[in-house]
Design a protein that fits this description.
Number of helices: 2
Distance between the termini: 12 Å
Number of strands: 0
Strand content: under 5%
Length: about 140
């Protein structure tokens, strides 16, 4: 019975390593999926924001035309409005890219931790096996 304990320990370590490898693969996949989701959400937010911006710009042009205002301050206002809208879209894009990058990094870091765990399990299995002087007897 005592001889079986090291064998059980080695098998348990190998099984643990296998689970850690699966965890690494799953973590990397989850990171990629989360990154894709973050990118899609940012793109959708930008699309919806742009629609609202276009409505705001159209309303501003319509009000200016209805009031009979032309040139100078109206043009400057509309140009400023468009500039701010463009900055807002750029910010949404940049924030989305940062979220995408963070999700990828989180997945890679989690996968790295799982790979390290797998290596630890295999090291433990090797150490247990090496410690047995009469492994086959």
């Amino acid at each position: 019975m005592a001889a079986a304990i090291p064998v059980i320990s080695v098998v348990a370590s190998v099984v643990g390593a296998g689970a850690a490898v699966k965890g690494a693969v799953d973590a990397k996949k989850a990171g990629k999926e989360n990154a894709a989701r973050a990118k899609a959400e940012a793109e959708e937010q930008a699309r919806r924001t742009r629609i609202e911006q276009q409505k705001t710009e159209a309303l501003a042009r319509a009000r200016a035309a209805a009031s009979g205002s032309q040139g100078g301050s109206v043009d400057a206002y509309l140009a400023g409005l468009q500039d701010e809208h463009q900055k807002e879209l750029q910010w949404i894009s940049k924030a989305g890219s940062m979220q995408e990058s963070a999700a990828k990094t989180a997945g890679k870091n989690a996968a790295s931790a799982q790979w390290a765990s797998a290596a630890g399990y295999l090291g433990q299995a090797g150490a247990t096996a090496a410690a047995q002087k009469s492994w086959w007897s």
